């Protein structure tokens, strides 16, 4: 998934990060160390090690030119990141600032009072208060409190489609569930898989559950679950979501072999660009994936739209799910809180936002719209930005919003639902029993 348009590693590689064994040894300079950072001391910032690190390194280099307290950026390999952070936070080598996904990824640190509550800081600082899209700030919060400042690009889940196939079969892009069902029937009759789905990787299936629950029951249903109430899985909208998934599977919406199709190795994207599948529900990095694998298709025939409405549902059709962005959080034990916050404020600057655009991502800053004309694909960049800007709610991917003890069994149960080895009713009961 490399093409220089987006940085999908923050979505895809976190799956191995969550269960990887820690492979880094030795202690790094801990919170607010003062030795090698110059007369004013230094703070350490952990960042997920991927191609986007160069943007954060440039920001650090610029900040250090005028700050007495210097920032040391530590790039931790993606497969080691989660465990490295976990082990470091409880030790003298804890970072002062660290990269995270918001939601469940920081809940253990919030519960143990390891993070600085930034709510009042953001409220009273115009740069932070007005610098980012509201839905993005909310998505990274917990219990109404802000613990992180956005620092990378947005990654909403979008419905991608093959323009040529829709034109050939005289179909409109689905806006409603009725439109979607008509497309399924038409494409099946033509021997075309309606939706590509990388079921072998499990996480692509999650996107269907996320959007369906949002459209059927609204974002409040999952928000209740995210806040720790597992009885929220018993909401009627959850059962309706699972039943709708079963109907899609039984109708052949994903073809017959989707459980053996992967995403990581290009299986599902290839079905779309070869015309064997008509649509693909995927994160915004699908564009960069297609540009890398089938550039002509990406430039001429790849279309994108929002997830359709569902009849009888109460969710706002403008709501979005996916990965709002990544965040910087501040360790409550830092000796240089003011410096840490000063560095976080630079994330709202036009200079930083431009660097994010130049790297092929879509910034979450409120000033980003004026910068997108320089994006590798301005049309796609603007559509994506507008989608998120107008979203009343941006629900974080469930497996990132929940702690691992809940996310892991959830993925297992969703996989069983798609594989047909459990029923919608049993799915609900299994999730309600998760403790």
UniProtKB/TrEMBL annotation:
The lineage of its organism: Bacteria, Bacillati, Actinomycetota, Actinomycetes, Kitasatosporales. SUPFAM superfamilies: Periplasmic binding protein-like II. Pfam families: SBP_bac_1. This is Xylobiose transport system substrate-binding protein. Coiled coil: none annotated. It comes from Streptomyces clavifer. InterPro entries: Bact_solute-bd_prot1, SBP. It comes from the Bacteria.
């Amino acid at each position: 998934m490399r093409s220089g348009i987006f940085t999908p590693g923050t979505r895809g590689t976190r799956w191995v990060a969550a269960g990887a064994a820690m492979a880094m040894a030795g202690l790094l300079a801990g919170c607010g160390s003062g030795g090698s950072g110059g007369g004013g001391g230094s703070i350490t910032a952990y960042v997920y090690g991927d191609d986007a690190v160069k943007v954060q390194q440039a920001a650090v280099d610029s900040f250090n030119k005028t700050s007495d307290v210097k920032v040391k950026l530590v790039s931790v390999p993606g497969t080691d990141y989660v465990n490295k952070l976990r082990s470091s936070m409880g030790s003298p080598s804890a970072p002062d600032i660290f990269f995270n996904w918001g939601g469940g990824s920081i809940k253990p640190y919030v519960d143990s009072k390891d993070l600085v509550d930034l709510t009042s800081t953001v409220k009273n600082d115009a740069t932070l208060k007005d610098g980012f899209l509201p839905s993005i700030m909310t998505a990274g919060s917990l219990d109404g409190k802000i613990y992180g400042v956005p620092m990378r690009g947005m990654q909403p889940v979008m419905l991608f489609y093959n323009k040529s196939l829709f034109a050939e079969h005289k179909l409109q892009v689905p806006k409603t569930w009725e439109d979607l069902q008509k497309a399924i029937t038409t494409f099946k009759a033509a021997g075309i898989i309606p939706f590509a789905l990388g079921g072998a990787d499990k996480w692509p299936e999650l996107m269907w559950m996320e959007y369906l629950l949002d459209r059927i029951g609204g974002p409040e249903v999952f928000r209740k679950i995210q806040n720790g109430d597992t009885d929220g899985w018993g909401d009627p909208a959850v059962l309706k979501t699972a039943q709708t998934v079963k109907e899609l599977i039984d109708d052949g919406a994903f073809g017959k072999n989707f459980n053996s199709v992967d995403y990581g190795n290009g299986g599902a994207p290839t079905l779309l660009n070869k015309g064997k599948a008509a649509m693909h529900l995927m994160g915004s990095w699908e564009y960069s994936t297609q540009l890398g694998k089938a550039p002509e298709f990406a430039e001429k025939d790849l279309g994108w739209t929002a997830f359709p409405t569902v009849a009888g549902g109460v969710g706002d059709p403008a709501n979005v799910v996916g990965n709002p962005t990544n965040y910087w959080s501040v360790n409550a034990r830092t000796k240089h809180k003011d410096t840490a916050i000063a560095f976080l404020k630079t994330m709202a600057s036009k200079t930083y936002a431009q660097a994010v655009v130049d790297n092929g991502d879509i910034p979450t800053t409120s000033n980003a719209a004026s910068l997108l004309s320089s994006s590798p694909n301005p049309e796609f960049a603007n559509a994506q930005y507008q989608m998120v800007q107008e979203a009343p709610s941006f629900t974080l991917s469930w497996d990132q919003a929940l702690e691992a003890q809940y996310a892991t069994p959830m993925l297992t149960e969703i996989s069983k639902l798609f594989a047909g080895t459990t029923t919608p009713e049993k799915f609900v009961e299994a999730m309600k029993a998760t403790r």
